[in-house]
Design brief:
The protein is α+β, with helices and mostly antiparallel strands and 63 residues long. It has one helix at 13-31, and strands at residues 3-8, 39-44, 51-52, 55-56. It has a two-stranded parallel ribbon.
Length: 63
């Protein structure tokens, strides 16, 4: 049973729904597993719980 963990900044429910659908379809097509066997977990983190180059996300310059 494939288990996929997606770590990302917060996204809308609709975006997560679409991403879960596409990830599941990729496993079904590539690995020939039933869709019901694929589990997708979303771990969302805001800028206070993320750092790049030793700098917290909330302190990074905005792009």
């Amino acid at each position: 049973m494939p288990i996929v963990t997606v770590q990302q900044f917060p996204r809308s429910t609709e975006q997560k729904r679409e991403l879960a659908h596409r990830i599941t379809a990729a496993f079904v097509d590539t690995c020939q597993v039933p869709a019901e066997a694929v589990q997708v977990f979303f771990q969302e983190s805001d800028g206070e719980n993320y750092a790049k180059g030793g700098v917290l996300g909330v302190d990074l310059p905005k792009r």
